[in-house]
Amino acid sequence: MPWGDGTGPRGQGSGGGRGRGGGFGMGPGGECLCPNCGHREPHQLGVPCYTKKCPKCGAPMTRA
Hints:
- With 64 residues, this protein is mainly beta.
- Helix content is 0%, strand content 12%.
- The chain has no helices and three strands.
- It has strands spanning 31-33, 40-42, 62-63.
- A three-stranded antiparallel β-sheet has the order 2-1-3, with no helix packed on it.
């Protein structure tokens, strides 16, 4: 026990309990947005928006 009297902080790890990656995933829905020209496309499951290029101007897309 950390304090020697049986009152140590059990079950309080450093993960925060939000899951892998901090738990800030946006889920399967949503859109990919071009920050340059504003073009939007539906987000595809398993394909991160930042890996896609905007079909209009060629800039990397972001998640909206």
